[in-house]
Design brief:
By secondary structure, this protein is an alpha+beta fold. The chain is built from 9 helices and 5 strands, in the order αααβαββαβααβαα.
Length: 324
């Protein structure tokens, strides 16, 4: 829109140049005016171009801003979705975070208690556990019993329990599960607080200058340290009991009488009657022999008396006829 005045100025300068001759003062003024007009035209054109460029850039920026905002929103949404997905993926499983103490007690009747105890030991060790206690004793001349305490990992508890129950005749089985999650969390919290308290007392000891203050702080530190050690021992005990389950196994052998009665279902036979009669006969002979042995002294004395009596009677009979 400013190009027309610049063109008119240039044409006027050309006509003025043709009229003026070089070397005159008017020609010099004409050249100065021409230069000023050209400079003004250039500045005007550059200003229009810069304004156009600026307006174009501003429009481009305004057009790009919503797109950038959409992109940022979509990126934020994607980030939120990703964070939500990762949070959902990393969400802890309540059952996995629970702390449970599992115990079981089994009573099983087996053919050989020592052999069954050895098999139970192998089963526990194969599952990654251990034998906490084992005792085998002889009940009588023919029977033995075993008492075994096994510690097995929580993940192998059910499988080991099933395998031990199938080693013989199951007499009894009890199992318990105690959730101590709240107790574990409480102990952990108290340990953290107690450690902070111990550290605070140590800092006070470092700053103490008076001997009385040092002695008092040492006693306080000793008490808090002892409490902390007690809490740590409780924490270790809970960790051990919640990591390894306890199975108490009692193994016993059947009584011989039970075997005889179980095998004698048809009643007594000829051999049983013969055995019973022989037993009675032997018993009678024993009693007769005992009676004879008890009466033997009396029989011997009676025999001596009879013999003496007979001899005295014979002598008296002979003396009577001779006297007459």
């Amino acid at each position: 829109m400013q190009a027309a005045p610049a063109t008119r100025t240039k044409r006027h300068a050309d006509r003025q140049g043709r009229r003026d001759r070089p070397g005159r003062p008017g020609a010099r003024r004409t050249r100065i005016a021409l230069a000023a007009g050209l400079l003004t035209a250039v500045l005007a054109l550059s200003g229009c171009g810069g304004a156009g460029d600026d307006s174009g850039k501003s429009a481009d920026r305004r057009a790009a801003a919503p797109a950038q905002q959409d992109g940022v929103g979509s990126g934020a949404g994607g980030a939120e979705k990703g964070a939500g997905g990762s949070a959902a993926a990393k969400k802890p499983n309540p059952s996995a975070a629970a702390h449970v103490i599992r115990t079981a007690s089994l009573s099983v009747e087996v053919k050989s208690a020592p052999e069954a105890a050895a098999a139970a030991r192998v089963t526990a060790e194969a599952a990654g556990g251990l034998v906490a206690d084992e005792k085998t004793e002889q009940v009588d001349a023919t029977r033995a019993s075993s008492h075994v305490v096994l510690r097995v990992p929580q993940g192998e508890y059910d499988s080991v329990l099933r395998e031990l129950s199938g080693t013989g005749k199951l007499l009894s089985r009890t199992s318990t599960a105690k959730d101590v999650t709240d107790q574990v969390v409480d102990v952990d919290s108290r340990i953290a607080s107690q450690r902070t308290s111990v550290a605070r007392v140590r800092k006070l000891m470092d700053r103490a200058d008076e001997l009385s203050d040092v002695v008092s702080l040492e006693g306080e530190l000793s008490n808090r340290q002892a409490a902390l050690e007690s809490m740590l021992a409780e924490q270790a005990s809970l960790k051990d009991r919640t990591t390894l389950a306890t199975i108490t196994l009692n193994l016993s052998e059947p009584e011989p009488r039970a075997k005889a009665v179980a095998g004698d279902e048809d009643g007594p036979g000829f051999l049983d009657a013969l055995s019973g009669g022989w037993h009675v006969f032997v018993t009678v002979i024993k009693w007769l022999a005992m009676a004879l042995g008890a009466a033997a002294p009396f029989l011997a004395v009676a025999a001596v008396v009879v013999v003496l009596w007979q001899r005295l009677g014979r002598r008296g009979g002979k003396a009577g006829p001779e006297g007459e």
